[in-house]
Structure formats: structure tokens, C-alpha cells
Automatic annotation (TrEMBL):
A GO biological process held by the record: protein N-linked glycosylation
Gene Ontology, cellular component aspect: mannan polymerase complex
Species this protein is from: Penicillium bovifimosum
UniProt keywords, alphabetically: Glycosyltransferase, Transferase
Protein name: Uncharacterized protein
Family stated for the protein in its record: Belongs to the glycosyltransferase 34 family.
A GO term for molecular function: alpha-1,6-mannosyltransferase activity
Amino acid sequence: MQFALPPRRSPQPLPLARPRMSSYRRKQLKSGAVFAFAVFLILFIHHLYASPFYTSPFLSAAASTSTSGVVIVTLLDHQLFSDAYLKKIIANREHYANYHGYTNFFASVSDYDEAVGDAPQSWAVVPAVRHAMATHPHAAYFFYLAPHALIMDPTKSLKSHLLGKGRLEELMMRDVPIVPPDSIIKTFSHQTEEDVDLIITQDKEDLNPWSFVLKSGDFARFFLDIWFDPLYRNYNFAKAETHGLDHIMQWHPTVLARTAVVPQRLLASFSSGSPGASLDGTYEDGDFVVQFRGCDVDNSRDCAREVEPYYKLWEKKVQGD
């Protein structure tokens, strides 16, 4: 059995006690230490602000004091779409924003190559929305709309269409499968509009991440962080960010509890040439948005050609305002 040994004695004699320091000398040393720390702190902050990876929240706030309550986020792919096509998408967004006093946030897919890494570029939707939130910290809502979509009824504000008092209460799809047609996880049956921070829709097979409204706040940052987790980006989902979103909604009730699913035609009607529309999800005149689902990934389709008749219809509506 081993026992604790007594402290060893040092073979060297103990040093002689030093004389006590004067109070004046102690004050000098204390003042010097404070000054040195202040200099170090100033140099550190200067280095931090000089870093190309740092974005000051104070600068972001100052730059966006005129931001409206709603920011429309559009992610543009200059390699996938022609300049002529993107000009039409931008014109569509600018007219809608000007009509209702909203703010546009246009970003390029290539801006987020480093963040997305080896994952499909479609994941860029998440850092793009997060970037918009950082740039416009005073906005109340962020409306993401993919570039293969047009706002067809510019007279509908988000407030009258979705956000007005009592409006969402009527529209929310309760106790329905999150992932159609037969997911065992369903939307909450007793959810109220006060619980909601994310408004999204679904097609015949999945949730639709190409058109959604996200309320600014802690939940929005939490949700985007989870969605962009490297585990999901590197999992090789067949439909990348779409299946990542499907998974989160089914297995993270914290997110589902703050999400309202609304009928497809309220946020993302599909064009007649788009596959996978829900039972009542194909575009009809008067719908808010039309999407050309898959036109950017199907080699047999051409987004510019499919958009053209809808764009001309939109132009007539705009000219008639």
C-alpha cells in the first residue's frame, strides 16, 4: 500500500525575504500594466478591423438605416443564366420593391464559393440570406425568391398576402405531412401565427426552398446555422439543400414549431412545364409567384424560353398599373 509522501525539502536554503515594496512603487507598476494592456487592446482591435474576413456590425447598421421592413433576396448565377435573362429577373424584383417600398438584396452565387466548399452551389441560398440579414439588420422580414421565378402580381404586398393580422391563421396547413405525400411527421395542429418565424410551401414531393419568408431574429440565425451545417452539406443528399431542409423539419421539432406551411400557389406556383406541382400548385392568372422548377438543371429545358411568355404577361400588368 502506498501512502502520500510528506513534502520534499529543498536542498537549497530558502532565499532571504525581500523588503516590502512601497505603495508608490506599486501604483507605478499598476499604472504601467494598465497602459500596456490598453495599447495591446488598441493594436488587437486595429488588426481585427483590418482583416478582410471581418465585417463590422456597426458599419452594417449604419449602411442600412434606410432599409425597409422587407428585404427581397435574389441569388444570381452569372454562369448559368445569360445577362439578358438576369436583367429581366432584376427588373421584376426592382419593380415589386419600388411598388411597395421594399429593399432588394442581389447576390452572386460565386460570392459564396468558399463558404459552400465542395457542396452543390445551390447551397449558396443559405449564406446569401444570412449575408442579407447582416447587411440589413433593421429589416423585419427577408423574402427569398430564386432566380428561376417571377413575381406575377406586383399589387400583392407581403402584408396583405401573408403577414397581415389573422391572415396567416387562415392559411396555415395544420396536421399535414411535412414531406408529401406520406411523411409520418406532420405540421402542428394547434400552431398559431404568433408562433411563426418561417413561412414556406411544398410541392408534390418536398418542401420548396426557392420561395420563403423568414422573420428576422434569433430563430432566423439559428435556423440558417442548422440548415448550413457541414453535416448536411456533405451528406450528398439527392436534392442537396432541399432534402437537407426536409430532414431538419422532420427531425428538429424546434424548427418545425416556428414554421408555417402554406398552400403552394400562395408562394410558389409552378409553370405548366415544371414537374412535381402539388394537386393545386400549377400557376393560374392572379397567382403571386410563378416558378420554373428544374429549368436550370434539365438540359432539355431553357429557362429563358420558358420565362418569356410569363415575362410579357407581367409587363402588361405593370404597364396597366
